[in-house]
Amino acid sequence: MKHVMKWCVTCWLLFWACLPIMAQQQSRLISGIVTDDSGEPLIGANILDLTSKSGAVADLEGKFSLEVTPSSKLKISFVGFNDRILSGKELKSNMVIVLSSDSKMLDELVVVGYGTQKKVNLTGAVAAVSSADLEGKPVTNVVEALQGTTSGLVIQQSNSAPGARPSINIRGLNTMNDTSPLVLIDGIIGDIQNVNPSDIESISVLKDASSTAIYGSRASNGVILITTKKGSTEKNEITYEMQLGWQTPTFLPKIVDSWVYAEMRNEALLNSGQHTAFTPEDIEYYRNGGPNCNWMEEIYKNRAVQQSHNISFSGGKGNTTFMLSLGYVDQNSMFKGPDYGMQRYNARLNLTHKVSDRFKFSTTVAYARNEVKDHAYWTEWIIEQATRMPSIYPIKDEEGNYTYPSGSNSNALARLEKGGYRQNSNDDVAATLNAELNIWDALKLKGMIGGQLYNNRTHENRKAINAPASGDVENRMTEQFARSLNLTTNVMLTYDKTFGKHTVGAMLGYSYEGGSDKGFNTYRLTDTADFDIMVGSQTSNVGNSGSGSDWSIYSGFARLNYNYDEKYLFEFNLRDDASSKFAKGNRSALFPSFSLGWRISEEKFFEKIKDYVSSLKLRTSWGLVGNNRIGDYQYLSSVSVTPSYNFGNTIVNGASFAAVNTDIRWETTAMFDLGVDIGLFNNSLNITADFFNNKTRDILIQLPVPGVFGGGNPVQNAGKVRNRGWEVNLSYRFKTGPVEHFISGNVSDAVNEVVDTKGVEWINGADVNTIIKEGYAINSYYAYRWNGIFQNEKEVAAGPWLDGVTPKPGDLRYVDKNNDGLIKESDDRFILGDNFPHYTYGFSYGFTWKGLDFSMFWQGVGRRNVWLRGESVEAFHNNNEGPVFDFHLDRWTPNNPDASYPRLTVGAESTNNAAKSNFWIQDASYLRLKNAQIGYTLPKKWMDKVHIQNLRIYVTGENLFTLSHIKGGWDPETTDGGGRIYPVARVISMGLNVKF
Q: Does the structure show a pLDDT above 80 at 25?
């Protein structure tokens, strides 16, 4: 027995000793190629042995090789395709592994209000923007990157000043009041400017009532939902992104040379009955080396640096996932001066933990710090001064001193370099805590609490400029503080269940949102600005002010979804909001919406053409949404105390009460949408089209009341506006050999009309007049209509004449609306369009080929008007010495009767031509190469050697090229008025993306 046991033990030990040798003998090398349904190689497909955890990656031809054993089980995967599992006899050499398209792509989820929905089952108008649409763009905020990416989202970037805020609009103007959309970041109100673009997973733009009514009182202008990235337990990653670029102005006014200016100045003086200012010798001096300075060019740098750095750590283990990111943006100002610019610091932590199969929670914490340093004046002052200066004056003399030409007591460059600074420091902290409990089967309880704390401090130290003739002699110190705190809580009960062909989803929720704002401002004039702090007990030349407000909304909301057999879709939303901005009795309002969808392509009769028309869905929606964007406490009477009476040669204060209407209530918009979604050729070509018609009632406006009331004009719910439009989106992906192409485009338009103001009209503005009038767009231009140029004395005598002005040949002629021979503001002004962008569009094309990628994105506006005034377009504006631009060369003279500009004049002689007319309203349509990129991703076999998952290098440009008809060298996105706007920047940047 003992011998038998020894023999068994010996055999057992020999077996384990030989096992590695046996395994080695049984392993073998296999090879293959991975392709899609059409036979195209899937470059980078992943092949993983689930038994040994070894693996391979398909090369540029889709080929791979891997050592396997009889027990090996291979998983072959590629993004957008179904995985395949192979084992046993299926593992052989020279395999051809075909991966089919992932049908789950049809189940792509889109973020909607308080949840997600399958894209194919959406019945509302929702546009999804992915993180890929934002990548590589050399921008300092998300808004710039969104411009032109989807229809109906109108973004205008009128300037690129550090910290500038582009305007955002969704589907036009539904009200005469605030039209900005509601922005939610991970479920709470946030500042879209402070979000790190690299942190964004997706952006949803909610446009119609079906998608927005769940947000009730703040949804009439649309909703933007931003969702940030989360971690995954499948892999741990470290990602680093870097950009380094240079900014230059896209447009600067083209000022004529000094000798040309002198000739034109003489001409203008003679036309105005004055003596010339320059002799032939003066003109020759300028032509042969005299001063020739463009002040606009002198106040900007040749190049201003812009850079960004982002690093993120994401992953997870077990039941916990995380994403931690840090970001830094540094945008130098294009203005000359000491360290002007913006720095932003971002930090974010997103954490999710699954406590059990039934309970999980997540938290997000985000911090953003903005530091914006600027000159101590206003930008329009700087640009105005530089624009008006003719080229005959140097900005500095030969000894380096700032020059102050006659008629000017300021120098734009002196203000930038010596006039002090203004520092804005902003801290934005946001946090959320979410919890989810699976109560039973498909029934879940969800809760969230979140908040945002925003602190702002502005410190200004304006310094007197000690130079002869300088009028900037004031030392002024200013301190401003502002604090906002917003809190959000909500709890929801959700139910999602499928019963055969019936799928039901329901949600019932309650939320509270509230906020408080406080501010304080103080300033004082000082003898010196050498000390950069307010000290002492000064009581004169000082000022103080403060403000504070609170608001809250209590809401209940519900949603019901139903679909039958994935063909017939229905959704109902309801929200009840009670807002502190209205008096008791008017605080609550209901906002319902209904939507229907029909997936025609799922019908049996559609099967014959499904090879061509892969998907077809009709959808429609109707609902009510609100707008509570009005000031706090408007239903309460406020008291103002001001110096009012003289008693005994002493001025004493008096109190006055503002007129109020305690019955004000919500503005309500009824939204209708009709849309179609089409997928052609296996969904490689997708088309979405929508028509919408919105009607807003109870708009808050000020109507006149009888004079005996004696309390001014309180606001009333009396206005109505209609806003209609359409949208089309298109995307197409295809291959030509190994090259994969993608094309996308969108175009949209919205037209608003003031329907009812109870017959009251409002004319607004000073240099630019707009009107609100029934039957026309909100804030339409209101001015004379010009009717050519008087060519001779006979035409002048025939008139008509501007009231109080005697024109001459070469002057503008205006349309006499009432045919009385005189042009008067009270009788002869016309409504002449508006400045809202129409036919906004975007177009992109790109391709990838063996690691090389290229993309270009064009964006533009088909029709827009802009009314420019003052020194931005007028020669010798307001009796100044300048400016004179290149387009003024084509001015009227007896020898140039077909000129595009009237005769040159100065002073009072310019009154006729400077009148407010559509001669100054310009075509601001444009086409812009918004972004172009070319990049290269290094081969994975190279990167594996240095343990890098992915490395891409690229060159990118923003605002590279613009076609525009606008005069004067101004950017077509400029706003109305004098063109006193910091320019839009052209940015050329190099970038690097590394993933470990």
A: no
User: Residue 703: what are its φ and ψ, rounded to 5°?
Assistant: -110, 145
SS3 string, 21-67, reads HHHHHHCEEEEEEEECCCCCECCCCEEEECCCCCEEECCCCCEEEEE
Give me the half-sphere count of Cα atoms (radius 13 Å) on the Cβ side of residue 121: 22
CA distance linking residue 971 with residue 21, whole number of Å = 76
Backbone phi, then psi, for 948, in 5-degree steps? -120, 130
Q: What is the mean pLDDT of residues 260-282?
A: 96
pLDDT of residue 495 exceeding 50, the answer is yes
Nearest CA to 621 out of 676, 658, 665, 659 is that of 676
The token duo for 972 is 């077509």
Q: Are strands 921-923 and 28-35 parallel, antiparallel or unpaired?
A: unpaired
- Cα separation, 959 vs 987, whole angstroms: 7
What is the average per-residue pLDDT within 500-513? 93
Per-residue pLDDT at 288 exceeds 60: yes
User: Between helices 258-271 and 280-287, what is the axis angle to 10°?
Assistant: 150
Cβ neighbours of residue 977 closer than 8 Å, sequence gap 6 or more: 767, 768, 867, 868, 869, 870, 872
| Mean local confidence (pLDDT), 473-495 | 93
Instruction: Tell the burial category of 351 from Cβ atoms under 10 Å away from its Cβ (0-12, 13-18, 19+).
Output: middle
Cα gap 312→298, rounded to integer Å: 41
- Predicted TM-score (pTM) of the model is 0.86
pLDDT grade, residue 80 (50/70/90)? low
Minimal CA–CA distance to 929: which of 250, 245, 305, 297?
250
Structure tokens at 496: 């999602």
The values of phi and psi at residue 970, to 5°, are: -95, 155
Residues making up the chain, counted from first to last? 996
Report d(CA 501, CA 496) in Å as an integer. 14
| 327 phi and psi angles, rounded to 5 deg | -140, 155
For 436-457, how does the pLDDT look when each residue is reduced to its tens digit (9 = 90+)?
999 988 899 999 999 999 999 9
∠ Cα 37 40 42 (to 5°)? 95
Mean pLDDT of the chain, nearest integer: 88
Q: Are strands 685-702 and 667-680 parallel, antiparallel or unpaired?
A: antiparallel
The DSSP letter of residue 681 is T
The Cβ of residue 952 has, within 10 Å, a number of other Cβ atoms equal to 18
- On the CB side of 820, how many CA atoms lie within 13 Å of its CA? 10
Classified as helix, coil or strand, 541 is coil
Please, which residues bridge with residue 687 across strands? 678, 730
User: Which residue in 177, 159, 178, 179 sits closest to 169, CA to CA?
Assistant: 179
Across the range 106-115, mean pLDDT stands at 80
User: In Å, how far from its chain's centre is CA 447?
Assistant: 30
